Amino acid sequence: MSLDQYKTIGVIHSCFKEKFGIPRQPGLAPSTSAVLTLSPPFDTAESVRGLTEFTHIWVIYIFHANKDRLWRPTVRPPRLGGNRRVGVWASRSPLRPNPIGISAVRLSGIDTTGDRTRLFLEGGDFLDGTPVIDIKPYIRYADSIPEAASGYAHQPPPERPVFFTDQAEILCKEKEKKGIAGLKNLITQVLRCDPRPAYIDSEARRRFGVRLHDMDIHWETRGESIWVVDIVEWKQ
Question: Among residues 8, 142, 167, 212, which is most buried (max CB within 10 A)?
Answer without folding.
Answer: 212
